[in-house]
From TrEMBL:
Signal sequence interval, chain numbering: 1-26
Residue span, Sulfide dehydrogenase [flavocytochrome c] flavoprotein chain central domain: 163-278
Gene3D superfamilies linked: FAD/NAD(P)-binding domain (3.50.50.60), Flavocytochrome c sulphide dehydrogenase, flavin-binding domain (3.90.760.10)
Ranges where the FAD/NAD(P)-binding domain occurs: 31-135
Protein name (record): NAD(P)/FAD-dependent oxidoreductase
PROSITE patterns recorded: TAT
Organism: Yoonia algicola
Entry keyword Plastid: no
Length: 420
């Protein structure tokens, strides 16, 4: 095997095991390898396997055996879901759809040879490769913080243990203490997510620690659903939440995880919990594959194929695709377009024109749900917004409760769509 700029091996041990390991090949069928088992990757793998009826060999590479959704994890922080309800396994994809599910890390892509290298040493050949790796964090994005500090100051922007840690820290806050958030700059996963999180933390603190304060350092001039969140915060959590935007130093912050301080434009604040959500970029494997431009991976809107390699497709958070937000709904929608295009390319089946949709629901308080969404079409330049909608301020309690119930139905539906 030739090692060049398109292949990366994490360790010398991985190199040694790779050289000793045989190729894993399926005979006589086109091969699709999907990296990442979230809303994009799991959906794409399932649709390709289901709709090709066994004509395509599908392998899904995902390191975790139980996938915890990042979407709806804020509701765990607010006490509206338990962690078990957010965890899902891959057994049905393997048993009912014949997908070869491999729990390992993808550490290399050789675009010339069309192979993926796994940390365990195996090499997977592909005819088409689908990358849906989610996000990583930009090094140095928040002064004083890196991933080594995530246990002291959690990001909780991947589902699972980080979310549990942040919840435990909130529950252990002293009476009258301070919860702080460093909000991320655009673009980032789930634009309303940090502000739903603030709502859910406020909901919990109102019940167990009503004199606590919440401080947000935000580098952005504005944020998704801002009038809706601010209306809710004023009505439900009056006096608890303070947001400092860029005009007052919200873009000039640093943290000290040992001292538990957040410094905003030179003003040092002692805090009891600090949720640091740094700037984001495409998951590392996209960079390793050599298909990123800056922090994200540019794609063609019609089929989500990489603009740098027609045999690689990129879904969800990692893709630079145009107007769609980075969300679980978006990733699921893009996966269906990609699956149809990949199946057509490999088997000659009908490929339908690309259409996309997204909705993002947020919970502000009990039965107080709001949403924003849009439909999109593929153009030569990008995925372009066609029309959109957003909840209005001042809506009735009945409408807000119905919106929340709608979100629960969507969650159940997307999980079935992803995992079968």
């Amino acid at each position: 095997m030739t090692f060049n700029r398109r292949i990366f091996l994490g360790t010398a041990a991985a190199t040694a095991s790779l050289l000793a390991a045989p190729m894993v090949r399926a005979q006589g069928k086109p091969r699709v390898v999907v990296i990442g088992g979230g809303a994009g990757g799991a959906t794409a793998a399932r649709y390709i396997a289901k709709d090709s009826q066994g004509a395509i060999d599908v392998t899904l590479v995902e390191p975790t055996r139980t996938y915890y959704t990042c979407f709806f994890s804020n509701l765990y922080l607010g006490g509206f879901r338990d962690m078990g309800s957010l965890g899902h396994s891959y057994g049905t994809l393997a048993a009912d759809y014949g997908i070869n599910v491999i729990h390992d890390w993808a550490v290399g892509v050789d675009r010339d040879a069309k192979t993926v290298t796994l940390a365990g040493g195996s090499s997977l050949p592909y005819d088409r490769l689908i990358l849906s790796p989610g996000i990583d964090f930009v090094d140095g994005a928040v002064e004083g913080w890196d991933v080594s500090a995530q246990n002291a100051m959690p990001h909780a922007y991947r589902g699972g243990s980080q979310t549990e840690l942040l919840k435990a820290q909130v529950m252990a806050m002293p009476q009258g203490g301070t919860f702080a958030m460093v909000a991320p700059p655009n673009p980032y996963r789930c634009p309303p997510g940090p502000y739903e999180r603030i709502s859910m933390v406020a909901h919990t603190l109102r019940e167990i620690n009503p004199t606590a304060k919440i401080l947000i350092a935000d580098p952005k001039e504005s944020f998704s659903k801002q009038p809706l969140f601010e209306e809710g915060w004023n009505d439900k959590y009056a006096g608890m939440i303070e947001r400092i935007g860029p005009d007052f130093g919200g873009a000039n912050v640093s943290v000290d995880p040992q001292a538990m301080t957040l410094t905003i434009d030179g003003d040092v604040n002692d805090v009891d919990v600090c949720n640091v959500i740094p700037a984001m970029k495409a998951g590392r494997i996209a960079e390793i594959a050599g298909i990123t431009d800056g922090n994200w991976a540019p794609v063609n809107a019609a089929d989500m194929s990489s603009k740098m390699d027609e045999n690689i497709h990129v879904l969800g958070d990692a893709a630079a695709q145009g107007d769609m937000p980075k969300s679980g709904f978006s990733a699921n929608s893009q996966a269906k377009v990609c699956a149809n295009a990949v199946r057509g390319a490999l088997t000659g089946s009908t490929v339908f024109p690309a259409r996309f949709a997204n909705t993002c629901w947020s919970l502000i308080d009990t039965d107080d749900g709001v949403k924003v969404g849009a439909t999109y079409e593929a153009t030569d330049e990008k995925i372009a917004k066609v029309d959109g909608f957003v909840s209005a301020t001042g809506e009735s309690d009945e409408l807000r409760a119905a919106t929340y119930q709608e979100s629960i139905g969507w969650y159940d539906g997307i999980i079935a769509d992803m995992f079968g």
